[in-house]
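Issue 218. Parser rejects a valid record. Input:
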Amino acid sequence: MRDNSSKSAKTRFSLAVYLILIVAVPLMTIYGAMAAFEYYRSSQLALQHMRTILEETTAHYSSRMNTFFVSVEQVARTLGGSFDIGLVNSEEECYLLLEYELSNNPNIFGLGVTLSGYNDRGQDHESIVYVCRDEARGLQRARIRAGRAEWVRAAKETGAAAWSEPYYDYDAGNVVLCTFAAPIVRDGIFRGIVSVDINMEDMARYNIPSLYIDGGYFALFSRDGTYLLHPDPDKRLQGNLNRDAHQSAEALRMASAINKGGRGVIKLDTDENGIFWMAYDRVDANSWVIACVAAEDEVLAPNLEILRINMIVMLISGFLLFLIVIFFIHRILNLPLNRLLAGAQRFADGDLDVQVPESGRTRQVYQLSHAFNEMVREHRKNLAARVSDSLARRQAEEASIAKSEFLANMSHEIRTPMNGVMGMASLLQDTKLDEHQQQFVDSICQSASALLSVVNDVLDFSKSESKKIVLEISGFNLRFLLENILDNHFLPADRKGLTLNLFYDPQAPEWVEGDPDRLRQIIINLVGNAIKFTDRGYVRLIVEWHQGDSFTFKVTDSGIGIDEKHHSEIFNPFSQVDTSHSRSFGGTGLGLAISQRLVSVMGGEIFLKSVLNEGSIFAFTIHLPAVEDKKNFPVRFLKGRKVLVVCADDDNRGSIVMTFKALGAQTEEYAAPLEPVRDIDISESGGFHLTVVEKSCLGNLSQEQWPDPLLILVPFGSRWEGGAVNHLTYPVHIKTLTTACRKVLQLGDGTSGVDGAALPEALQIKAERYLNILLAEDNIVNQKVATAMLKKMGHQVTVAVNGLEAVEILKEHVFDAVFMDCQMPQMDGYQATRIIRENNTENTDGKRLPIIAMTAHAMSGDREKCLAAGMDEYLTKPVDIHKLKSVLQGIF
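Output the parser choked on:
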């Protein structure tokens, strides 16, 4: 125990010694050097301060003297301007004026004036008057005496104002005076002189309160170096600095500096009296020089003594303070650092609950202890957060998987019976039904389509939320796509009495690159909504083309409109602005939300402009590059031909006219009635190559009375009973219009259409080739639907109730194609397909057996999953007969 204590004491003593040796000695050396440097620097600053004070004081008194002399000169010039030569008739007037000026300028000793002119008798006259101060008798009149007369004569001879050198005026009491003489000139003729005398003693008293300063004095020198002012009276006007320059180096340096003029500070070294400094400055008014001479030791002595005492005190106190600091560092830091070291070692060993006391005699030690404890707590928190994040991420992934599985199961479970309902209803429509039965079947089909639309909207919205929308870019004919969409909506629009038209920019290309299915989905949503919420008027689809291959699509209507306060809500999911609309018009409220997200994926932005009860405009702009290897514009076979269009409805007429312009025609349009048509001069056909007339505008005129060739526009659903006259039934598209015009104008049969890429022919029910098909489907209703559809097309069908049975049948029989459901008992469609591919099963042509997925799985990735399993095509339930035929035509 004693040994440990002794060892500990020895360790503490060694630490103190090390601190003193390693820290104290170098720091004390640095401190001493800094103290010496500070002493030197302070001395230089004091010396610089002394020089600055001398220079500023000299400049100040020089400025005051210069101001004084300038004011005297101004008095002289003012007084000279006050004399009116023509009115001076007596010396009395001159005395009175001088006395007045002298009484107002106490810094002036005397004033005199010499005037030359003519008296009132026309005789030469000269007035020589003078007024000066007398301490006992006040202002005294006199004549100009000899001393001043010399400067008066000098000014008269030179014609210029000038200061005299100081001189003794014995008549005035042996005072030293200086005179400023200013000539009086009228019209270029010398008329007289004004002289102003100043007393040098008074001048010094006014401008320099004392010729003495601490450790020095002030002196004033004339232009030739004469002492004008000096503390030594014997030198005034008697001594000369230039003469003294031959006697000492100090005087020589002073004379050299003063004779150069200007201002400055010089150092004067003398062996006997020490170091002196002289600051000098020139008085601009008369080129005199004022100088301030001071002894360095006398000026700096008090400051330097205080500085030396301060430096000694600073060194002693610094040394004592340093010892105290060393002591407290040893006492204060050693224990807390040992505690921190022990805590850090425990933390390194894995003890996450370690804490050190947050105490200490210094803020830094406390902060260090607190920071260590915070570090430990933060580490525990981060560790817990990482564990929590990992758990939350795993839960989120599980929730996402569960959601995807739920949506997939929901889609499958709904689409499977939907396939039976819609398939059977479509087959029932093709049977012989009475009017009421046909209405019932139509209602079933419409309700089933509405339910399928709801399912598709929910699935699309789920895909957009999970950001799984992937665009499939391909080339397609934009005009044909839009016309096909409007064809599908023409019947519901016509039932409501609405006009539905496409206004396609005649300058726009038709073949473009993009995702036609996503664009179709957007347009269908917008057009369907417009028809749904419009009871009368029109619905228009307007396509505008901009340079740079961007298209703007606008769907406008004359419907109920939307209040401005609801514009910000219209694109929200499940929103229909007014909850009553969901019952009045139906729908999920997802269409616009899905459309907005699809437009965003395409790099565009959708916006709304609507006024309540006046209609709405939904518009979006996207980039669709033109397909370069296709004919992008219609064949302008009507170029140079004039076409007359007579149509009552503005929308129908405008759409037809725009289509004719796309074909190159020059159009003239009229909105019935008959009279305007007569004004055209029907008998001569008005020079038109073709007349297009809506059936309702024919009037009472017979067809033979109309210009020939004639094309009649027949409303949708109407029957034409006009015989062999050429007619065209609404809706009018560029394909049908081109065919009709070629036939009417006898330009060919019109089969070449617009650009050599005509619309697909209407699908025929009967197939061109009858196939032997294997259907793998476990649902009995879906078996009946698919079998009936395929047999209706003329195909032979064999049914397998699961994938295992399908594989066994294929081992014994050869088929042309297989329709494979994906979810079946015992063996699903994926596994069955893989086995079939492993067996390299062939069809009747000796080629790879085509397998078409026909499944209710419609989630994102299901198509890729089917193709990856080895299937060739993918159909989602519910399917119709046209989809079946289209897929088979693509394979065979």
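Fixed in the parser; the record now loads. Residues 405 and 859 are 10 Å apart (CA to CA).
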